[in-house]
Amino acid sequence: MWKVFELMYQVFEKDGFEYFTDMMPALHNYVTVDTEAFLSNQNHLLAMFNMCKAILNGDAGEDPESHAAKLLEVIILQCKGRIDQCIPSFVELVLQRLMREVKTSELRTMCLQVVISALYYNPQLLFETIDKLDLSVPPSESIASHFIKQWIHDTDCFLGLHDRKLCVLGMCTLISMSPQRPLVLQECAPQIVPSLIVLFEGLKRAYAEKAQEQDEEDEDEEDEEGDEEVLSSDEDELNEGDAEYLEKLQEKVKNKKVISPFTINSVTIEDDASDEDSDEDYAPPEETVLESYTTPLDEENCIVDEYVAFKEILQSLQAADPVWYNALTAHLTAEQQKSLQDIMVLADQRKAAAESKRIEQSGGYAFVQHTIPTSFNFGGTPLGR
Q1: Using CA atoms, how far apart are residues 198 and 207, in angstroms rounded to an integer?
Q2: How much is the pLDDT for 178?
Q3: Which tens digit of pLDDT belongs to each residue from 217-229?
Q4: Is the pLDDT of residue 258 over 50?
Q5: Above pLDDT 70, what percent of the chain?
Q6: d(CA 250, CA 55)
Q7: Best CA proximity match to 220, nearest among 269, 170, 175, 260
Q8: Secondary element (H or E) of residue 232
Q9: Please, which residues have CB within 8 angstroms of residue 129's CB and are 6 or more apart in sequence?
Q10: Helix 240-255, helix 184-232: angle, nearest 10
């Protein structure tokens, strides 16, 4: 199959530029299915980078450009700690693209995510790289300052589980940097925790939607099994009742919800009054198209939980660096403090649930009564551990 990858690259170089998004599922598999083989030949990495560079520097359009940025992000997260030499080129490419006109929030956030994934990969390497770049930014700002401010400003543009989770982990990495913390963080400190609260609120909705979809899939599977059992008995004998049943079954198939990782848009023509009602009730989907290209952070057994990571880092900062902790939390409103308390409670619940699941999968069960605190102190004493 690696010979096929070489052929795909040759086709892309020759006249396959327009088909990059069609190639994306296969390219994602080459990175994720056998990462060892992917990294065994530096030409594999070079070919991937060259394709992404051609798309991001060409005129393919912002949808293919978003896919190219996603592929770079997947490579960084899939090969964490093993491609230090590639990080500068990846980061420079997406930052250069951000300096040109960007029309869609999807492309802007995807380019930001490449930089965020590089931050999560190795924060020191990222800021060393940024400091060496020669990009046109406002004279009063450094590239790092410009990036961090844009990131915080666009927090509400990150959608879906993966994007928000990476964003949270990136901000956790950022605020835990010490003593090499970027100077702009002091200026942005009052905005960081509120931005994280927005991300966690979005994550809560996304996890709820994912659980609902899983329940619907399970129900559909049960219905299909029931249908098969009915049809398997006396298959060759059809009477009037059977015909009526088959008609109902056909109607059900037509109306059945399609389970797909891609957003499906449909239009229903109704009267003006119902249109107004549907507009008011409409909520955008929590999953994004590009989330179908998974990374290690999206695996079901991933040990990295963004809620737990955030709580542990905030507790650590309160104990080890109270001045910085106060800079992050002193400006929170009463409502934001309540939201932060809810996040802390949920972090403990998720940690307990993950531990129980690990014990169950290992063949044992733990009947431990976990005491979950319901409030936290944002003053000078450490948070309850």
Answers
A1: 14
A2: 81
A3: 878 777 676 666 6
A4: no
A5: 77
A6: 44
A7: 260
A8: helix 184-232
A9: 87, 88, 91, 92, 118
A10: 170
Asked if 144 contacts 182 with a C-beta cutoff of 8 angstroms, the reply is: yes
Q: Mean pLDDT for the chain? A: 84
Within 10 angstroms of residue 306's Cβ, the number of other Cβ atoms is 25
Residue listed under structure tokens 């307990």: 352
Q: How many CB atoms lie within 10 A of CB 79?
A: 19
Q: Which residue is associated with the tokens 């869609």?
A: 104
Euclidean distance between CA atoms 114 and 101, whole angstroms: 18
The residue whose two tokens read 């925790």 is 193
* Assigned token pair, 138: 């406002």
Tokens of 61: 């359009």
d(CA 365, CA 328): 39
Report the length, in residues, of the chain.
385
Two structure tokens written together for 335: 């409502």
Where does residue 15 fall: left (phi above 0), alpha (psi -120 to 50 degrees), or beta otherwise? alpha
H/E run at residue 276: helix 272-281
Q: Which residue has the higher pLDDT, 270 or 42?
A: 42
Q: What is the pTM of this model?
A: 0.79
Place of tokens 């401010």: 149
| Residue whose pair of structure tokens reads 């040990």 in the numeric block | 303
Q: What is the pLDDT of residue 362?
A: 79
Q: What is the pLDDT of residue 215?
A: 85
The three-point CA angle 182-188-193 to 5° equals 110
Cite the beta strand spans of the chain per DSSP E.
none
A 10 A CB-CB count for 299 gives 10
Q: How far apart are CA 177 and CA 325, in angstroms?
A: 12
- Amino acid identity of residue 146, one-letter, is H
Residue 263's pLDDT is 32
337-353: buried (b, 16+ CB within 10 Å) or exposed (e) per residue?
bebbbbbbbbbbebbbe
Distance CA(177)–CA(356), nearest Å, equals 32
Query: Do residues 39 and 82 lie in contact, with contact meaning Cβ atoms separated by under 8 Å?
Result: yes
Cβ neighbours, 10 Å, residue 304? 12
Say whether pLDDT at 66 is over 90: yes
Which residues have C-beta within 8 Å of that of residue 272, sequence separation ≥ 6? none
